[in-house]
Write a structure and sequence with these properties.
The protein is of the alpha+beta class and 99 residues long. Helices cover 17% and strands 38% of the residues. It has helices at 40-43, 79-91, and strands at residues 2-5, 11-20, 23-33, 46-49, 59-60, 65-66, 72-76.
Length: 99
């Protein structure tokens, strides 16, 4: 998991690839976001995952990362979906909290 910060200061993590049946699948893209409600326009290309990402890197106070207990985890189906979601997330100045 690699973490980044938008110009507005919002944190997100990016994970590319996953082990599927013992083999590395490089086509898997996951984002860990601050708690948000995704817009409907992104819903057809993004799967919200129920289980939070529990890697030890989700809490790094010295780096300003604390997504351990409050996060939206999303799996994307393409690089176009990644571009669209990141453009939306970066353009939002205020966090849009999930209900």
């Amino acid at each position: 998991m690699q973490y980044f910060r938008t110009p507005a200061g919002r944190v997100f993590g990016l994970r590319v690839g996953d082990l599927v049946a013992g083999r590395f699948n490089h086509k898997s893209i996951e984002l860990i976001l601050e708690p948000v409600c995704l817009p409907a326009s992104l819903a057809s290309h993004a799967e919200c995952l129920v289980q939070p990402y529990r890697g030890s890197s989700t809490r790094q106070p010295s780096k300003g990362v604390d997504l351990k207990d409050a996060q939206t985890r999303v799996r994307l189906d393409s690089l176009l979906a990644l571009d669209a979601l990141l453009a939306w997330y970066a353009s939002s100045q205020q966090p849009v909290h999930a209900a």
